[in-house]
Amino acid sequence: MNYSKLGGILGKIMILEGILMLAPLTVSFVYKESLVHKLAFLIPIIILALFGGLLQLLKPRRNSLYQKEGFALVAMVWIVMTLFGAIPFVINGEIPNYIDACFEMMSGFTTTGSSVISDLTVISHSTLFWRSFSHWIGGMGILVFILIFIPESNEGYSMHLLRAESPGPQVGKIVSKMKVTTRILYLIYLGMTVLEVIILMLDKPIPGYEKDQLFLSLLATFGCAGTGGFGFIPGSIELFHPFSQYVMSIFLILFGCNFSLYYLLLIGKVKDVLKSEEFRSYFLIVGLAVLFVFLSLVGRFEAFPQTYTTEESFRHSLFQVASLMTTAGYTTTDYDVWPMLGKSALIVVMFIGAMAGSTAGGIKVSRIVMAVKGSYINVRKLINPRYVPKAEFEGKSLEEKTLNDVFAFITLYFFIFVMAIFLLSFDPLNGQTVTVVSDAGTYNVTHGFFSNFSAALTCISNVGPAFEAVGPYSSFAGYSHFSKIVLTLTMLLGRLEILPVFVLFSPRTWKKI
């Protein structure tokens, strides 16, 4: 292992995190918060600068990284970012337990949005900003940003880092040079972020939050861009006006698209975008899911407490499908009391996720399409052993290795999912009654299998809210420390798509060859 090189990059990441913490520190000054809240960010900034600077003194003998080192580095970076990013919560006392703080921070950086905070009204502006800002940081990828500064001669290991951190089965450069690729991706990401903030600012302020319109627009956009979804006011997005809810629905769907497609649009290759098989499949799934949820709400095939107009039914259907399929996890209403048809559609899209190369989690539409085609090929071979497969995806032949990788990922995904459910079954919270207060009224739910099932699903797919006792109007605060550690690791496995974490903790990675 090239320890000196790994340490040097980790040092850069630590310095970067310290620089990023200047943003919530500035918010603390703007809102004239107490000295403790300012020190909560100032102390970690100093620590990160000190340790990061010391790691820069390491002189590597080899300036390159092998694939296993790149994968291990990616996992280490996300863990280090979380461990240091959680410190402000402990210092200011708003999440005093460090395990809880790490859960919250991992949820932020992995753009999950699951939270242990039960009452957002007592949380400071600087903490709210740091939580939501972590979505934006983790959305495009921490190391993708660092790749901008890696010299061109190191393009080989730059690709290892990009493949390890970027979601999806097929990752590559959109132009000839990696540095230019990462710059383009981040410029598109930044441009879309700024555009959404401007459009949200055109809406009327939320009653009671007139002075915070820019602040709330920024936080809402951070969650949409990173497809995260931390709540920052009670009720998530419920208090936002319909205009803002529609705007956020559209941007959530857009941020769930492969960012390479936006580059094709910018250079005028519109036909290539429309020819994309994953692009068409993505919008087909979104459309069908919205239709099923909408029909379940207006048809009232099953009794549920809310009463919606036709427009409200469509808006909530569009928003919740967009939010959960892109794994953002924002909510406009209590979908946990919806008819089973609507909830089933939401669970399905939580598994699927959005497009590869987006900021979303989940299995990804591309893998689903390839898995369906691979299964079809296997069935045809059983019927006719002489059958020669000719399956294609995005205009290219699907090789057997690609299909094997897809099936291997899906197998690992469900194995980890099932193991997380099993480990959560040991939690003392099981069998207890939880009171939920939402726009559907006040009701009690028992924390049982479906709560654990949806908690594991929402963490491995990086969605955020789940169902029943950990639904959209509840939190994960009731889980034991052991369960929170399990879910924290599950979020990391989901965001980095399993392999980098496995490589990091594999003993073979650290053996000399």
N- to C-terminal distance = 9 Å
Overall pLDDT, averaged? 90
Molecular shape: globular
Q: How would you characterize the largest beta sheet?
A: 2 strands, antiparallel
The radius of gyration over CA amounts to 22 Å
Describe the structure.
The protein contains 22 helices and four strands. Helix 10 packs antiparallel against helix 12 and helix 15 crosses helix 16. The longest helix is centred in the C-terminal third of the chain and has 25 residues. 61% of the residues lie in helices and 3% in strands. It is mainly alpha-helical. Strand 3 and strand 4 form a beta hairpin.
Key traits:
513 residues; two-stranded antiparallel ribbon; two-stranded antiparallel sheet; 22 helices; globular
Secondary-structure topology with pairs:
Layout: H1 3-20, H2 22-30, H3 35-55, H4 67-85, H5 87-91, H6 98-109, H7 125-140, H8 142-147, H9 155-165, H10 178-201, H11 213-225, H12 242-255, H13 259-266, H14 270-275, H15 277-299, H16 310-325, H17 340-352, H18 365-383, E1 392-393, E2 396-397, H19 400-424, E3 433-438, E4 441-446, H20 449-460, H21 481-495, H22 499-505
Antiparallel strand pairs: 1-2, 3-4
Helix pairs in contact: 1-3, 1-4, 2-3, 2-7, 4-6, 4-9, 4-22, 6-7, 6-21, 7-11, 10-11, 10-12, 10-13, 11-12, 12-16, 15-16, 15-17, 16-17, 18-19, 19-20, 19-21, 20-21
